[in-house]
Amino acid sequence: MDIKNVSVIGAGTMGNGIAHVFAQTGFKVTLVDVNATQLEKAIGTISKNLDRQVSKGVLTEEQKATTLNNITTNTSIADGVANANLVVEAATENVNLKLEIFKQLDAAAPTGCILASNTSSISITKIAAVTKRPELVIGMHFMNPVPVMKLVEIINGYATSKEVNVIITELSKQLGKVPCTVNDYPGFIANRILMPMINEAIYSLFEGVAGVEEIDTVMKLGMAHPMGPLQLADFIGLDVCLSILKVLHDGFGNPKYAPCPLLTNMVMAGKLGAKSGEGFYVYTAGSKELVVSGSFK
Ligand code: NAD
């Protein structure tokens, strides 16, 4: 199958990164979002990230211009996917919203178009079941920040065809990524392993075993992790961590995945991490400099 036109649904954190890597590799990209301001912001972010690549000597000014020329934007799903060979959905992580979007994609995308989701935790099998083409539905889970991170976790739903898996695997390599195929069970592999570690770090804080800095330092220096689990949770978003833990807890029915009450409380209090200005650390406006917010209160 010859993939030339790629539509990306959702122009947030992940959508702009996904559009960036496809466009830089030479694909024609249509970036779709219901929110026109988000689309403008996404193009600004892509342009800024391309500038950084130019200043590092990774790209030329000409390649930057070609990449931007490869991207158009649209606020309508139906128009935005009319010529797509592949759709990568990266809209808000909400099951009902994704089911609705996939019904629309199935109705509007050409026959044979592959429908991929970048979901962190929602079942690909469930998403595929609302379409009339479940064999063409697959998980294509990029990591944040997309232009930098090498992994694409590919998730085979119950009905995903072998051919579609091969196409998406080869395509991921073409993007300069390293694909890894897993089956469709709660949390796939990345979050099934990452989230219990983050939850355990939060429990360690909650039970007073150590403070924020101590927990992160032990994991950074002791395990050679580039970032401690509490700082990583702040960057992922504490609301996102909580919702993924709930998917694991509900999906497996095993108490070991129960979210730490401190995480639940912080989300209820609106402390969502870097995006809200405070999580386990405090983030000063416009800067990613961390100021430790003090220990568990
Ligand atoms: P985000 O909140 O930054 O962006 C979501 C975008 O979707 C918003 O711009 C919103 O306007 C748009 N949207 C909402 N409804 C829409 C609709 N009906 N049609 C088109 N656009 C719509 O979210 P994000 O962090 O980019 O996450 C997107 C997806 O990627 C989620 O499924 C998430 O689980 C997954 N993911 C996120 C990360 C991460 O670190 N943020 C990593 C891997 C995967």
Notes on the protein architecture:
By secondary structure, this protein is an alpha/beta fold. The protein is built from twelve helices and ten strands. It has helices at residues 13-24, 36-55, 61-69, 77-80, 95-108, 124-129, 162-174, 190-206, 212-223, 229-236, 238-252, 261-268; strands at residues 5-9, 28-32, 71-74, 86-89, 114-117, 137-142, 151-156, 178-183, 281-283, 290-292. The strands form two sheets. It has an eight-stranded mixed β-sheet with strand order 3-2-1-4-5-6-7-8, sandwiched between helices. A two-stranded antiparallel ribbon has the order 9-10. Helix 1 (13-24) crosses helix 2 (36-55) and helix 8 (190-206) packs across helix 10. It starts with a strand and ends in a 5-residue tail after the last strand. Nicotinamide-adenine-dinucleotide binds next to helix 1 and helix 5.
Structural class: alpha/beta
Mean pLDDT, as a whole number? 95
How large, in whole angstroms, is the Cα Rg? 20 Å
CATH class term of the largest domain? Alpha Beta
Q: Tell me the number of structural domains.
A: 2
Spatial strand arrangement across the major sheet: 3-2-1-4-5-6-7-8
Return the CATH topology of the largest domain. Rossmann fold
Low-confidence runs (pLDDT<50, min 5 residues)? none
Distance between the amino and carboxyl termini: 56 Å
Instruction: State the CATH superfamily name of the largest domain.
Output: NAD(P)-binding Rossmann-like Domain
- Provide the succession of SSEs: EHEHHEHEHEHEEHEHHHHHEE
**What percentage of the residues does DSSP assign to strands (E)?**
15-25%
Question: Can you list the ligands bound to this structure?
Answer: nicotinamide-adenine-dinucleotide
Largest sheet: 8 strands, mixed
